[in-house]
Amino acid sequence: MVSSEEERRTLTGWAGRHSTAQGLAMRARIVPACAEGGGNVAVAAWLRLDRKTVAR
């Protein structure tokens, strides 16, 4: 998965806002972690999520 710098900034902004829906904020943290090359299990452990959530 490859994302541009602009996409990463947008996702980071969403993840950090208090007004962002929780589901969107969670996905906004998952996507950049996966884009950095992390596998589902590693990203799930790092974000303290179920690996099935990350895989979805």
Quick structural summary:
This protein is an all-alpha fold and 56 residues long. The protein has four helices and no strands. The protein has helices at residues 5-16, 22-35, 40-47, 51-55.
Structure notes:
This protein has helices spanning 5-16, 22-35, 40-47, 51-55. By secondary structure, it is an all-alpha fold. It has one domain (5-55). Helix 1 runs antiparallel to helix 2 and helix 2 (22-35) crosses helix 3 (40-47). The longest helix has 14 residues, at 22-35. It is flat and about 25 Å long. The chain starts with a helix and ends with a helix. The mean pLDDT is 88.
List keywords for this structure.
flat, mainly alpha
Number of strands: 0
Q: Round the mean pLDDT to the nearest integer and report it.
A: 88
Helix content class:
55-70%
- Tertiary shape: flat
Q: Give the N-to-C terminal Cα separation.
A: 14 Å
Contiguous runs where pLDDT drops below 50 for at least 5 residues:
none
Number of helical regions = 4
Strand content: under 5%
Oligomer: single chain
How many whole angstroms does the radius of gyration measure? 11 Å
The figure for the number of domains is 1
Order of helices and strands: HHHH
Q: Characterize the largest beta sheet: strand count, sense, and whether it forms a barrel.
A: none
The helix-and-strand class reads mainly alpha
